[in-house]
Amino acid sequence: MDEIIIENLNVYAYHGVYQEENEKGQNFYINAVLYLDTRKAGSEDKLEYTVSYGDVCQFIYEYVSRTVFKLIESVAEKTAEAILSEFPLIEGITLEIRKPEAPIGLEFQSVSVRITRTWHMACIALGSNMGDREKYITDAVAELDYDNKCRVLKTSELVNTTPYGETNQGEFLNGAVVIKTLYTPEELLDKIHEIEEAAGRERNEHWGPRTLDLDIIFYDDLVMHTDTLQIPHVDMQNRDFVLEPLSQLVPYVVHPVLGKTVVQLYEELQKSGEKHVIGSEYIH
């Protein structure tokens, strides 16, 4: 990934734990490395294919000078998030906030916080078999897209499916969505649980009926296993109602454990696995 580098942008601002810092303010110096693809801009010599460093500097200046936080950790976190949300071509940022006038009472040159934040790709499976199934799903996609830490890239067709696991319940509507997100996997899990709960999801029965079911299938090529989250989804290779929508969106993404593409897994399941998909319709 290419880099645009900004060094020692001076901003007079009012961040600090002490009231005097919030009232009188002090100088902050900001360093930023912007990660993006500049090849097309360089080849065609057109600003529209890159990011104006002048615009980014002005944005940082205005954001840091007009907000007030106690911690420079918060200044860094919120500023990075704001930059990544404002400038779509920037894929990631390393941001350093320096505070040379910090009230330490000892001789020092500067204190600073440096963070790196990037967009990540996540694939989320969608399902519902209660109430207005399509509305629950489309509302969930809209809620993800509304969140400034998520960008919906692609949505699949919705497929009608027979129940998986506990079969004594109504048919499901299933689909998938590909997003870019600034959330960590755990934060994304919290976010989708929040969306499920807003849709009236109750977790009373494993594999039971539900207004809305959201599962993280992939998060970049991450492999993780905790008490609350497994990525890739532990049972995705056995679910045609997950693989069929995913094969529309990311057919050649490779499962980082099984070493097979989504479409390969789907084709294998079609030959020898359970079949639940019975029809489809488009997300409006």
Put the structure in a nutshell.
The protein has eight helices and twelve strands.
Features of this protein?
alpha+beta, 8 helices, elongated
What is the residue-averaged pLDDT?
93
Structural class per helix/strand content? alpha+beta
Helix content: 25-40%
Oligomer description? single chain
Residues in β-strands, percent: 25-35%
Main pleated-sheet profile: 6 strands, antiparallel
Radius of gyration: 23 Å
> How many beta-strand runs?
12
Uncertain spans, ≥5 residues at pLDDT below 50?
A: none
Structure report:
It is a single chain. This protein is α+β, with helices and mostly antiparallel strands and 284 residues long. It has 8 helices and 12 strands. It has helices at 19-24, 39-44, 53-66, 72-86, 133-146, 185-198, 240-249, 262-272; strands at residues 2-13, 26-36, 92-99, 111-118, 120-128, 150-155, 158-161, 172-181, 213-219, 224-225, 230-231, 277-281. Strands 5, 6, 7, 8, 9 and 12 form a 6-stranded antiparallel β-sheet that branches. Strand 10 and strand 11 form a beta hairpin. The radius of gyration is 23 Å and the shape is elongated. The mean pLDDT is 93.
